[in-house]
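Troubleshooting log. The previous structure file for this entry was overwritten by mistake, so regenerating from the original sequence record. Sequence copied from the archived sheet and checked twice against the printout by T.R.
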Amino acid sequence: MRRFVLGVMALVAAGMPMAASARWADWPPGPTDAELEQVVRVAYTAAAAHARGNTNYFARDGVFDPLRSAVEDELGRQGLTFVNVVGEPAASLEMARLCAAEGTELRIGVNLFGDGIDLAVATDERVFSYHYEPRENAAVVVAPAAPCQRG
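Regenerated output below.
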């Protein structure tokens, strides 16, 4: 035990960061399922607030950048800056749920009318998503974290 304590003290003296001070995203294998869910919840909350201020549309007339910016800004306010918000809308929920090449990616898709939204956060191993299509279901359909599919 004494060797362990001395070893830890040597690391601290050498300026090595301690595990307790590191963020969870800095450690492989990446975010937990609960953390993936947190990212999508924050993103959906931001998207819904944006829609309320945009005549109840997420992306009216195909204008996507304000929605993306609203989501990205809220992720930043919540300290989730390690998430890369993809710049173009996802073509479909299935495409949004594909594995990320690296890091953690949030993909946003909107329906043709701009009043439905898909949000999926993916790593190179896991994915979590929300799907809201008011013409299909009045509720948000949650797909719990699961292994992602390779593209």
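The mean pLDDT is 87. Archived copy saved in two places this time.
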